[in-house]
Amino acid sequence: MPKASTIMVKTGRTQTDLEVSDIHYVLMDRNYANIHMEFGGVYKSRITFDELKTLLGDSFLPTGRGCLVNIAQIHHIDDMVVLNSGERLKCVSRLKPALVAQLCAARNCPPASVDIKAPRPFKPEKQPAPAVGKSVSPVAEAQAAWEPEADVRGFSDGAYLNIVVKRRRIMLPVNSILYTDVEGSHAQIHLIDGMVYRTRTTLSALERGLGDGFLKVSRSRLVSVMAIHSVTDTVNLISGEALSYPPYRESQIRKQLASRKKQFIDRFSDEGVPTTPEEYHNHYRCFDNAPFAFTDIEMVFNEDRHAVDWIFRYGNPALARLEKIPLKSLIGSSFGSLFSNMDSKWLSCYEQAALYGKTLEIVSYSPEIDTNLKIICYPTFKGHCGCLLFNLDAKDGQLSTLKL
């Protein structure tokens, strides 16, 4: 049995807890493990094969060099290992007798009941209902011989992207998608948490489904506008990824990016204001893994309608590190209650953004946290503003080059 019900792996900059029971198999690719999950997702993590064997325990069997398979997912064994999903994985011949013996032992059946040469006919299991918001993972090209029959269909109104992966229909929240790459008749859909789906579709179908929240930066790539950190010789994402684009498109990309971001800022004020911390987090989840601090603050006004304080409604982990206060203490608290030496200069800037729709840039010293900051604030919801904060004293101060 596995040593634990979950394991923690690092995917990009994110630490992710994976349910061991949801892992179907693992394929190594040099120094990386492609961890294939339920519903066709794959996590790509830098971890050794031996480390994974130790973490997963004896409920996973080696079927070849760099391959571990969940016993519970094995349907039968013939010349290959056939999974319940229909996928077929290669198996080293000399490992088959031991693999069959282990499989029989795990199922508490005599070895003679498993015929590795003439298995019973395989019938795919009945497909489950669509998985809404199910966490799935980065799909590195599968080394298995099975090719999914998938297509993009039934796009919703923009809240979810409805796709089919390995004969299963999945609905992905659009605000969880970083970018998509199309190659031939297939697309790889990269999610914020480091996961990727591979499905059969076209770039034009994705453009229709994702809407104007995504920018076409090349013939085969769409990128979330709100996920773009900056544009240099590459398109730099808040996840730390740098995506290439044709140099001749730089001017067009910059112009479209500025226009699209302005549209999004203008649109925020027309949307309903979240009412719970969970709703705020769902709205701003694309900032969770950003390398810079971000917060949405609600202004507090006195009877004369002058801003006197603000309340943190959303903040990412980078904000907690910058403010040196845990997120659970920040969210829902006013700035004045946390810092007795609040400098009033911040209030006037945030008030202009929240009330008058201005986008402002502030470069100043913060006595509250003893740090030189660059802050870009802009209107979000009514009475709110969003703030991107950059530590100018840190080595990564070059992040302050971000322009809206």
Short overview:
The chain has 404 residues and is of the alpha+beta class.
Question: What do these coordinates show?
Answer:
By secondary structure, the chain is of the alpha+beta class. It has nine helices and 26 strands. It has helices at residues 49-56, 96-107, 203-210, 250-268, 277-284, 317-323, 327-330, 335-338, 345-356, and strands at 6-11, 14-19, 23-29, 32-37, 42-46, 60-64, 67-70, 74-77, 81-83, 88-89, 131-132, 160-165, 168-173, 177-183, 186-191, 196-200, 214-218, 221-224, 228-231, 235-237, 242-243, 293-301, 307-315, 360-366, 371-379, 384-391. A five-stranded antiparallel beta sheet has the order 5-4-3-7-6, with helices on both faces. Strand 1 and strand 2 (14-19) form a beta hairpin.
Tally the helices. 9
Q: Which structural category fits the helices and strands?
A: alpha+beta
Q: How would you sum up the major sheet?
A: 5 strands, antiparallel
Topology, number of strands: 26
The proportion of residues forming helix, as a percent range, comes to: 10-25%
Topology:
Elements: E1 6-11, E2 14-19, E3 23-29, E4 32-37, E5 42-46, H1 49-56, E6 60-64, E7 67-70, E8 74-77, E9 81-83, E10 88-89, H2 96-107, E11 131-132, E12 160-165, E13 168-173, E14 177-183, E15 186-191, E16 196-200, H3 203-210, E17 214-218, E18 221-224, E19 228-231, E20 235-237, E21 242-243, H4 250-268, H5 277-284, E22 293-301, E23 307-315, H6 317-323, H7 327-330, H8 335-338, H9 345-356, E24 360-366, E25 371-379, E26 384-391
Parallel strand pairs: 11-13
Antiparallel strand pairs: 1-2, 3-4, 3-7, 4-5, 6-7, 8-9, 9-10, 12-13, 14-15, 14-18, 15-16, 17-18, 19-20, 20-21, 22-23, 22-26, 24-25, 25-26
